[in-house]
Amino acid sequence: MLLRLRDLHKSFTGAEGPVPVLRGVDLDLEAGESLALTGESGSGKSTLLHLVGGLDRPDAGSIALDGARVEALDDSGRAALRRGTVGVVFQQFNLIPSLSVGDNIAFQARLAGRHDARRAMMLAERLGLAPHLSKYPEQLSGGQQQRTAIARTLAARPRLVLADEPTGNLDETTAEAVLGAMLELVSETGAALLMVTHSEHHAARMGRRLHLHAGRIA
Ligand SMILES: Nc1ncnc2c1ncn2[C@@H]1O[C@H](COP(=O)(O)OP(=O)(O)OP(=O)(O)O)[C@@H](O)[C@H]1O
């Protein structure tokens, strides 16, 4: 098992005290699987991805990822996790403005010691970025920036890709193509994909789907 979540709890502090968001989430994900996470707005989907990616800590429960206990890692351990095992595609693309698109795509892979120029070029072609490699992020459209962020994550060949509505900024035709490319690229490397989506249609293309409701997997 690549990822195993057990009895995960997380609350945030509101005006009238703690507001529980996750109330005992259990989830298993094997290498090579793709899983869609659905749920109404505010149900805690992004919170769950942040906990798995080591961007925030649970109040209770365990996150076992590729043999590591994510909730117990210190800051440097969590940073190492994000450099090596986990790749994130979140709604903020966090591209580096001073680097070209090509260098942005290679950035994560270089940090992970896995840069491969041919793979980077193949990803750029598959995601329609080949004509834009020498441009800078500010010269790209929102959708092109989003695809650059996806290419950057996949170029580093993480064991687990966490994606929060990765096609949210794209028109339906481009979204279909990008989702198809993501599924193929993830399965080619034997990685797993955990993707938040509001689209029934996209959820149906994933291997499995789970629905978050009232703080638990329904
Ligand atoms: N850092 C935070 N501080 C306080 N409250 C937070 C924080 N992050 C999330 N929340 C609250 O936790 C709840 C779940 O938020 P989350 O972003 O995980 O939902 P979501 O299911 O991803 O929603 P959406 O589909 O709208 O993106 C919301 O009520 C939100 O306001």
From TrEMBL:
The keyword ATP-binding is annotated on this UniProt entry: yes
Domain ABC transporter residues, every copy: 3-217
Domain of life the protein comes from: Bacteria
Pfam families: ABC_tran
Record GO cellular component, one term: plasma membrane
SUPFAM superfamilies to which the protein is assigned, alphabetical: P-loop containing nucleoside triphosphate hydrolases
Organism for this UniProt entry: Limimaricola soesokkakensis
Entry keyword set: ATP-binding, Nucleotide-binding, Transport
Record's protein name: Putative ABC transport system ATP-binding protein
Alphabetical list of PANTHER family matching this protein: IMPORT ATP-BINDING PROTEIN, TRANSPORTER, PUTATIVE-RELATED
UniProt-listed CDD domains: ABC_MJ0796_LolCDE_FtsE (cd03255)
GO molecular function, one term: ATP binding
